[in-house]
Amino acid sequence: MLPKLTQKQTEVKRLGIPKIDSPLKLSTQISLHSHVLYNPYYQEKNKDRVSFEISIPENKIYFDPKKVTAGIVTCGGICPGLNNVIRAIVLGMHYNYGVSNIYGIRYGLQGFIAKYELPIIKLTPEAVSNIHEIGGTILGSSRGEQPIDEIVDFLEHQNMNILYVIGGDGTLRATERITQEIYARNLKIAVVAIPKTIDNDIAFVHRSFGFETAVDIATQSIQGAHAEATSFPNGIGLVKLMGRHSGFIAASAAIAQRDVNYVFIPEIDFDLDGPKGFLSELKKRMLSKSHAVIVVAEGAGQKFFEKQNQEKDASGNIKLMDIGVYLKDRITRYFKEENIPLNLKYIDPSYLIRSVAANTNDGLFCATLGQNAVHAAMAGKTEVLVSNWHGVYCNLPISLAISQKKTIHPGERLWLNVLESTGQPSFQND
Amino acid sequence: MLPKLTQKQTEVKRLGIPKIDSPLKLSTQISLHSHVLYNPYYQEKNKDRVSFEISIPENKIYFDPKKVTAGIVTCGGICPGLNNVIRAIVLGMHYNYGVSNIYGIRYGLQGFIAKYELPIIKLTPEAVSNIHEIGGTILGSSRGEQPIDEIVDFLEHQNMNILYVIGGDGTLRATERITQEIYARNLKIAVVAIPKTIDNDIAFVHRSFGFETAVDIATQSIQGAHAEATSFPNGIGLVKLMGRHSGFIAASAAIAQRDVNYVFIPEIDFDLDGPKGFLSELKKRMLSKSHAVIVVAEGAGQKFFEKQNQEKDASGNIKLMDIGVYLKDRITRYFKEENIPLNLKYIDPSYLIRSVAANTNDGLFCATLGQNAVHAAMAGKTEVLVSNWHGVYCNLPISLAISQKKTIHPGERLWLNVLESTGQPSFQND
Amino acid sequence: MLPKLTQKQTEVKRLGIPKIDSPLKLSTQISLHSHVLYNPYYQEKNKDRVSFEISIPENKIYFDPKKVTAGIVTCGGICPGLNNVIRAIVLGMHYNYGVSNIYGIRYGLQGFIAKYELPIIKLTPEAVSNIHEIGGTILGSSRGEQPIDEIVDFLEHQNMNILYVIGGDGTLRATERITQEIYARNLKIAVVAIPKTIDNDIAFVHRSFGFETAVDIATQSIQGAHAEATSFPNGIGLVKLMGRHSGFIAASAAIAQRDVNYVFIPEIDFDLDGPKGFLSELKKRMLSKSHAVIVVAEGAGQKFFEKQNQEKDASGNIKLMDIGVYLKDRITRYFKEENIPLNLKYIDPSYLIRSVAANTNDGLFCATLGQNAVHAAMAGKTEVLVSNWHGVYCNLPISLAISQKKTIHPGERLWLNVLESTGQPSFQND
Amino acid sequence: MLPKLTQKQTEVKRLGIPKIDSPLKLSTQISLHSHVLYNPYYQEKNKDRVSFEISIPENKIYFDPKKVTAGIVTCGGICPGLNNVIRAIVLGMHYNYGVSNIYGIRYGLQGFIAKYELPIIKLTPEAVSNIHEIGGTILGSSRGEQPIDEIVDFLEHQNMNILYVIGGDGTLRATERITQEIYARNLKIAVVAIPKTIDNDIAFVHRSFGFETAVDIATQSIQGAHAEATSFPNGIGLVKLMGRHSGFIAASAAIAQRDVNYVFIPEIDFDLDGPKGFLSELKKRMLSKSHAVIVVAEGAGQKFFEKQNQEKDASGNIKLMDIGVYLKDRITRYFKEENIPLNLKYIDPSYLIRSVAANTNDGLFCATLGQNAVHAAMAGKTEVLVSNWHGVYCNLPISLAISQKKTIHPGERLWLNVLESTGQPSFQND
Question: In degrees rounded to 5, what are phi and psi of residue A6?
């Protein structure tokens, strides 16, 4: 239904052959892709290209709505939008398909296990009416594994034929095993996952719910750090943000304000010491501009702790160190040695980023994810998760999503934008 | 750099062949696309597929930064993010390319015209430091055409070799003519546009800046309407939202809350009277649920005014009528005739939606659009605008973007989501 | 418990006797009070001064919590914080006094009347857990009178011995009559009111709940108007705000930003025409500054409609006119006649101001009002409302609060602050 | 101008003499005041009562606006609203008095001292136009003392005759000494202070600017803690808030939500161990309710560190300990010993609370404080600060404000409200 275009129509004019070198020295080679397809949808004639199934309500469904008993469970850490997704599933099941037996499982996978004695909660449109206004999950959550067979026992005992799982990497692995057990028992239970990761690090999922809200709150922290840094002589605002394996929150929040001078993420190595290291660069900046804002993702610079931990091993006192606190200490010590006064303010918004209610755009996103999860389940799709790929809602096998982690590639546009925004060098002595 | 996948890996499991009809009766046929490409980037082997050039900073540039004099102009209605885009251009020119001669043109195209005697404004990093915190445009704007040759005269007199234009459909048409005049005079001036439309209705541009902020504010209006509707017996909250030719704001805001019962947009016809018309459906709902929330885009239902205007023509008193007020009056009259008491609250946020500062996610978007506009200009690209297609920033010829309007297609996912959320029928007697 | 002070300790030093006239020409005489008492609490030795009873929990109470059945009703227009007050009453009754029979009356006074067939709602801590996050009232409301004897019949039939009424001037009058009927029947029912008025116009009540939130939203409208006004040549932003008899919202919102140039409120007369009238002053400003922001309370300038209404009377078509639309039309016409181009944007946030959830500070205020209402009721106080006087929570007889309206006095600090902020003259030809 | 009232009119009706004991067992005796004066303003007939001079613009002023050179300085930690106050002073001086020589002193008291070589900044209406939208202070600030005589030298050299000082307790003490030096040199320089304390702990000042914004952000932290606590089995949300000597932020934020179960402030002693200590109470709650929200002001429980510090003294390694971290560790250890699983989330918003821009109500407050500071200075008042007492803006001698600290009294309404909201006992073994 896209209007017809020719390649000629898309070609951009130029004044002439560029003649001089760009002064924009990004610390990374630019590469990757040069063009994006106008029509990125599957077409008969290009059947060799791999594609994802787009999420749509199907005209024929597998389950008789009157015979459906569905369960919803939320697992792992909380994330903005959990309640929105729960609400969307309940409203979609109820209003679009006429399903009325919908139950919430309490406290994540624990809710399936008899010994915890956790009752299930009946979920109705009234019960979920306002839950999208509050953070966390009304169902409760928990971390950790539970025996897969007991989980499937529970589904059998409760006569559930649809299970919605909202969780992250670990939960998706458990869900994968749950589906295997369901197949092994030859049960007709559809299992549909909605991937949850505030770090936005699930593979083959461009955007995860709650991420934009997280960036929103992270940006407020950076604004605070900037206010602190510019309000004092030699002020430094140092912000630690979530991001264990991927720096998406840190990178995105840094671009939004362009008030950030240095960003450190798990994917990109950096040195603190040495002539090209961060500390001497920071010194240069402080002497010329007298303020700086630094953002560090919690998973960045783990290499600094390898030695530390080993050292500590000897004294029998192993402790996972905190890169935020570590940077704060290193910077403070360095400037003391250099005899330069400093006003460093350390800001760690920690749980504040994940415990708020979803913002409007995430609300819209969660609502659509929930709707699509319902369509997938009612059509009898299973072992499936609802993804968003290049802005298109689609269904993926869970196995695919857990086959790897999504991280920021140094050559991709997001990181290049960070480098452009901050102007930071590579911080690597070699 | 995408990991290799096979189609088999992307295939979704199903419990069995669906056997029964879905109760989900959407008033529109579902069609369009079934799969989205995993890799939507251009590849040698599929060179027949049309693609858009991805925005990147190039290693070789056309302009010597020291010799650049750049102008920025904002035209047409205001939109959240205008100041963010101005700021991003200034910061990008200054910090990434070392350009220091950057000027703001006052009050849109009027600023080019001698008779208005409007001075240009020097734009520095300090001058734009906090402007992203406020709505509107610090440069000022205006509507309406201006003589193209005088505009180009101005560029020549000011010795400008880069012009950034931030504006909507009409402005892009003027910009197109400006570039033609520049070619005719054989000048070396790069003209780069950033498309501005709060209605998100520019063709070949998936997302326009300020749109998400607009949806954000629109959603607050809907929350207000919902509070009014549910707080009174037979309460109706009727909200009019921006959207002259396209209902993107109305549709998106309606999905986010799922508290909206009826959405009317310019793209979809509807009847008020008759057995399948909206009024009799609304009556049914009020009798059973006793409250309703209605959202109408300003461009919807224009057919109702064709007659009206003709009538008025005779009395010499032509006035463009307001669909919001019209609906309010029709509903009020209808329920009076039906002898059903009503508490209708009409909410028209009007300019409130476009005059706020950009929210975080729009801030991030504007920052990147501005950066990319700078890269395009410095590389000597011209008659070009910065677009976003399936989440990828890319460059389009302006001529392409003005070749048609973007509207909501009744069969596309966005509208189907609205129908799912509201459960509204087609409101067409035939 | 206030530390002892002598008057001498409070005396402010001055450099010398002021010698010159102040250039600050406020259009109103300054008068009223010169000093505020350090200790504004009642003391034995000044027993002649009138005082209000401070709200406190008493050690001895009238009702046995186990035998209490309480009702809560919300009446009239909605206001930010209604749900917070409901929540605070329920939580206070439950947790502080152990009362468990608490019921919500639906849709205001209608809920008492048999013919409406409205069931009461059981209110528990769980039921009200998150209601403060949403606007409106979960109980519903309605306007208009209902038979007092049927209301008291209802209380008798339901065996209610405490009634909490949340409503405005009209509701307080009805409440007063309800208490008279209760006395006449010799019933032991405590009736406690929490005054509700978004206009902040109830007498002997310094601050009413929801008012600060209303000012908050009103201020956003003014920011929008300012962005519009400054973004266009000869831009005018005209904002109409709530305030039928009192201009508290308009005055307060105008001071907060100091971007407002003219404020019109019901309490202060003004002329549009003539040499000192508003239109000629506005013309002067537009010619010199080329933008203006105007705020008008809905009850201002009603004198302009007296004639209008009389005219309309003849044609049998009386309609209350809208001062916002009237000003918009008059300004537009005037500048057209003066041949000065204009960009006037009219913003009417209407219900948006009253339908939002309470902000934090109002949440705190509502929580305390609700707690104090509970203390008053449990102690057997009746025909009483919870007020706030000079920052102190206190109890007033309802009869006192309805004995007059609270308005802005031209000589009081609030209006003087408006005049200082705007610099506006008196706009009176004589 | 207050309407006449008799005491009889203010008397509240009661159903009868209360007969039974209240179940509301507050851990503190209620006392203090029973009535608030209707008219708390000074009257001739009660001339024996101590009063504060109300802030008003005077008709006669001391300084000739054309000859005024004014300086503004911000000192100490940042606080929401600093820029609003700066803006209000500049706009008031410029528009109300026609003063155009207004300068900002950089980085607090350092800006007066030659060796720091900090230039002053010219402040115009344009320069301060949007600064209220950002946190921090555009002038910069610093902590610590500077030589008083050099400060006065600076004022003399710059020919400044008005100095506005925005700062806290320490700054007010320095200001007091500056005025003494000014008197000693017989200079005619008016020194006016606006008290700044995010903790709201300056004596004889009921409300300090930025406090409500701080409570706003603090409340968001508590909402986050509540979401965490209720989303996990045995979830505890522990929030540390600002408040070195006074717990106003912690107490106010706790009341607003009523989701807080325990509040600890510097003014109220508490035990952790023992039968009535906090830990055993917390255990009881966790076993029955399985979640808890705890708020602790940073200055609370310092007694726990006295021993700790002494211990550390020996090893020569003194470090002020953190009550938040201490509580977290003690709770964690206690529940481990008790063998009860726990999900404790520790949230320390730290600088986030003070670095945001002021909210609307604080904006209104800052605007009025600034206006009043200008009136005081122009009238030649000196050694004075602008206070707010029972909602009335008034002028106090600085000496009075620094004569003591303001703290929460255990018997005052604020703390009683906390006890009512939380239901917490006294936590004191004796």
Answer: -105, 155
At D314, is the pLDDT very low, low, confident or very high (cuts 50, 70, 90)? Answer: very low
Residues of A in contact with D110 (CB under 8 A): 233
Please give the Cα distance from A225 to A241 (Å, whole number): 12
Check CB contact under 8 Å for A232 and D140: yes
Mutant choice from C84, C130, C356 vs A, greatest count of A C-beta within 10 A? C130
Report pLDDT digits (tens) over C81-99: 999 999 999 999 999 999 9
What ipTM was reported for this prediction?
0.94
Question: What is the domain count for chain C?
Answer: 2
- Mean pLDDT (chain B, rounded): 93
| C357 contacts in chain A (CB < 8 Å) | 133
pLDDT digits (tens, 9 = 90+) for A332-379: 999 999 999 999 999 999 999 999 999 999 999 999 999 999 999 999
Whether residues A115 and A181 share a domain: the answer is yes
Residues of B in contact with A402 (CB under 8 A): none
Same domain, C165 and C131: yes
Mutation to test the C interface, candidates D45, D49, D396, most C Cβ within 10 Å: D49
Q: Are residues D197 and D237 in the same domain?
A: no
pLDDT of B266 over the 90 cut = yes
- For residue A36, list chain B residues with Cβ-Cβ distance below 8 A: 40-42, 51-52, 54, 389-390, 392, 394
Question: What residue in C sits closest to A132 (Cα-Cα)?
Answer: C133
* Co-location of A196 and A290 in the same domain: no
Non-local CB neighbours of C241 within 8 Å, separated by 6+ positions: C218, C221, C249, C250, C253, C295, C296, C297, C298, C349, C353
- Our CA angle for D160, D162, D165, nearest 5°, is 110
- Computed over every residue of chain A, the mean pLDDT equals 93
> CB distance A15–B61 less than 8 Å?
no
Q: Specify if C26 maps to a domain.
A: no
For residue D102, give the CATH number of its domain: 3.40.50.450
According to the model, what pLDDT value does residue D429 have? Answer: 87
Which of A159, A160, A158, A151 minimizes the C-alpha distance to A178?
Answer: A151
Residue D27 binned pLDDT confidence (cut-offs 50, 70, 90)? low
What is the residue range of D149's domain?
53-208+358-401
Instruction: Tell me which of C354, C369, C386 is where a domain ends.
Output: C354
Catalytic residue among D48, D169, D199, D201: D199
Judge if D341 and D294 occupy the same domain. Answer: yes
- What is the gyration radius of the CA atoms in chain C, in angstroms? 25
Does the annotation mark B199 as catalytic? yes
What is the DSSP secondary-structure string of D78-110? --TTHHHHHHHHHHIIIIIH---EEEEPSTGGG
Q: In angstroms, what separates the C-alpha of C132 from chain A's closest C-alpha? A: 10
CB–CB of A412/B1 below 8 Å? yes
Token couple for D223: 């909402």
* CA geometry: angle A6, A12, A15, nearest 5 deg: 145
CA distances to A226, D97, D164, D291, D367 from D194, rounded to whole Å, are 24, 19, 8, 42, 12
How confident is residue D313, by pLDDT bands cut at 50, 70 and 90? very low
Distances (CA, A) of B118 to B68, C233, C297: 22, 10, 35
Interatomic CA distance for residues D91 and D373, integer angstroms: 12
Statement to judge: residues B363 and B339 lie in one domain: no
What chain B residue is nearest to A359 in terms of C-alpha separation? B216
Q: Supply the angle between the helices C82-91 and C360-378 in degrees, to the nearest 10.
A: 40
What subunits make at least 3 CB pairs under 8 angstroms with A? B, C, D
Please tell me which residue in B169, B199, B259, B271 is annotated as part of the active site. Answer: B199
Q: Which of A11, A53, A219 sits opposite B35 (nearest CB)?
A: A53
Residue B408 within a domain: no
Q: Which residues on chain B are in Cβ contact (under 8 Å) with D134?
A: 130, 133
Interface with B, mutate which of C132, C226, C231, C356 (most B CBs under 10 A): C231
